[in-house]
Design a protein that fits this description.
The chain is built from 27 helices and five strands. It has helices spanning about 5-20, 20-30, 40-60, 110-125, 140, 145-155, 170-175, 180-200, 200-210, 220-225, 230-235, 240-250, 255-270, 270-295, 300-325, 345-370, 375-385, 390-395, 400-405, 415-425, 425-430, 435-445, 455-465, 480-485, 495-505, 505-510, 515-525; strands at about 65-75, 80-90, 95-100, 130-135, 160. The chain is globular. The chain has four domains: about 1-35, no CATH class; about 45-160 and about 480-535, Nucleotidyltransferase, domain 5, CATH 3.30.420.40; about 175-370, no CATH class; about 375-465, no CATH class. The longest helix has 29 residues, at about 345-370. By secondary structure, it is an alpha/beta fold.
């Protein structure tokens, strides 16, 4: 594959743009010639995607284990897509291959799981081969994740649901609050507020006049950490932001700017907004702490269990405080913020908000428990931690081994124990420069496959599963590439093929005879007026 349009097309573009205006006008106005047939272009894209899918299918047949990763994403036109990625090992290294975009018949567990299972069944015949599944996205996660992963696990019993490193833990706020309309509204308003200031240097300057320092985070930053810094900034500087908006409303000359400033002023002064802003200001620091703890390379199953326990206790304390008394809004003594509602209505509103706050706390806790319910793969990785080899030589980690066999019965416990004991005792493995699972797999497969058969199987499982920790961030996630591509792409008829060409360039360039295979398939897709197939007489 090449980024070039081709010699003929490049020459035509050059001549029409630089040399011959008459030729340019003729080509642009000609009815019978457009330089490139849309139909032929689409047929070539279809052929490329089919060849790519065939090769990915061949790779997956040869590999021992497969993991599936699905994520909700949108293009620049906000068209919903469910993207499917497969993770497996090729030549001793993990790869993540984009498969396609899916459009489920519904956003419930049945529709999503049926859509995913239909694709998996085309590629994975052995029910023991699929060992992990990971999902993300508000529409996928909200109220449906238990159903989705259980439906998949009914057919593929070893496909444990794991939290993928590409699914940021602090996005739990998005999923946990997606069913509450007030929460969706407040975060949408916070995003709009940041966009208002970040898209105009003049408005940003007005804000800085009142803040006397750097203003609110940009809207792009908000998408990455789901308004954590925004909630804190607005909570701490609400009065200054109100002052900036009032000045913008007075001085602006464009009607749209005046309308936006006035709308955000009313939002910032609303009692409901103040309540939820205060509530999330209490919640967000605990989410940030948990996220930072889970992203540490040195984390393990025990640390994750303890971190989640600390988080649950912190959120539980906030929940108890809500149940006992109303969360105090900021500026509670400022009676000029909003007109006082009637006592009956005010009491009803407070009671309803208190009830909703408790439900949000419960949703956050449920989200965390669901995501990290299974951490067996971290126990596996503990068995091959290089820095623990001297300790494990003296005292074999029997508990870790028992847990590993319980989670992955495909492992032969007796043989694995023997092989691990030899591994821990051998000095050359301790002194090796390869200090991760991929490096160790390469060492063992180089002439030691028979001696360390079960350890190699163990390493393949560890490498195939999407990691929980940031160790896997050293390679750029395929999901991130796809999302980056979609953020700059409108809905296309051949979106699967275009995404494949954009995100799988390295794979295609390393694919032997890719162009020849595409041309051969293109020639045989349908009967054509011209015979494109060369026949030797």
């Amino acid at each position: 594959m090449s980024n070039s349009k081709g010699i003929f097309r490049e020459l035509i573009d050059y001549f029409t743009a630089e040399l011959d205006k008459t030729l340019k006008d003729h080509i642009e106005s000609a009815l019978g010639y457009k330089g490139l047939s849309k139909t032929i272009q689409n047929e070539f894209l279809d052929a490329m995607l089919r060849v790519y899918h065939q090769q990915v299918g061949n790779e997956m047949k040869k590999t021992d284990y497969v993991a599936v990763i699905a994520d909700e994403t949108t293009d620049v036109s906000n068209q919903f897509q469910l993207v499917l990625v497969f993770r497996y090992i090729v030549d001793g290294r993990p790869v993540e291959r984009f498969w396609k975009f899916l459009l489920p018949s519904g956003h419930d567990s049945n529709g999503i799981s049926a859509c995913i299972l239909n694709e998996i069944s085309l590629l994975v015949d052995d029910p023991e081969k699929l060992i992990a599944q990971s999902y993300d996205g508000a529409a996928v996660m909200s109220g449906a994740i238990n159903g989705v992963h259980k439906h998949v696990q009914e057919r593929y019993p070893r496909a444990n649901f794991v939290h993928c490193y590409a699914h940021q833990a602090n996005l739990i706020m998005s999923h946990a609050t997606s069913s509450n309309s007030d929460c969706r509204i407040i975060f949408a308003n916070l995003t709009g507020l940041c966009t208002l200031f970040s898209t105009s240097p003049q408005r940003a300057a007005r804000l800085e006049e009142f803040l006397h320092k750097k203003g609110l985070p940009s809207s792009s930053k908000i998408k990455r950490n789901f308004n954590s810094s925004t909630v804190n900034a607005v909570y701490e500087h609400r009065e200054e932001i109100i002052g900036a908006l009032e000045k913008i409303e007075r001085e602006a000359t464009f009607q749209i700017t005046i309308q936006q400033a006035g709308a955000h002023l009313r939002i910032l002064e609303a009692e409901s907004f103040i309540y939820w802003l205060t509530f999330f200001h209490k919640i967000m620091p605990h989410v940030d702490i948990l996220f930072n703890q889970l992203q540490k390379v040195t984390t393990d199953a025990l640390k994750i269990h303890n971190n989640i326990g600390d988080f649950e206790r912190a959120i539980g304390k906030i929940r108890s405080e809500i149940g006992n008394t109303e969360t105090q809004p900021v500026d509670q003594n400022n009676s000029e913020l909003t007109p006082p509602p009637s006592k009956r209505r005010r009491t009803a509103d407070k009671s309803e908000r208190r009830k909703q706050s408790i439900e949000v706390c419960d949703s956050i806790l449920l989200e965390i428990k669901t995501r990290f319910q299974f951490i067996g793969h971290l126990i596996l990785s503990k068995l091959v931690s290089f820095n623990q080899f001297p300790l494990f030589e003296k005292e074999f980690p029997e508990d870790f081994l028992k847990e590993a066999i319980k989670f992955y019965p495909c492992l032969n416990g007796g043989r694995l124990r023997t092989e691990l004991s030899v591994l821990y005792a051998r000095e050359e493995f301790r002194q090796s420069s390869e200090t991760n699972a991929v490096g160790l797999l390469g060492l063992l497969q180089d002439g030691l496959s028979n001696s360390f058969h079960e350890v190699i199987k163990l390493l393949k499982i560890i490498i195939t599963i999407p990691m929980t920790t940031s160790e896997a961030e050293r390679q750029f996630s395929r999901l991130k590439r796809i999302k980056t591509f979609l953020r700059n792409t409108m809905k296309e008829d051949r979106l699967n093929a275009l995404t494949m060409l954009s995100c799988e360039k390295e794979f295609i360039n390393d694919f032997p005879n890719f162009n020849e295979k595409v041309i051969e398939l293109f020639c045989t897709l349908k009967t054509r007026k011209m015979d494109f197939i060369y026949r030797q007489l």
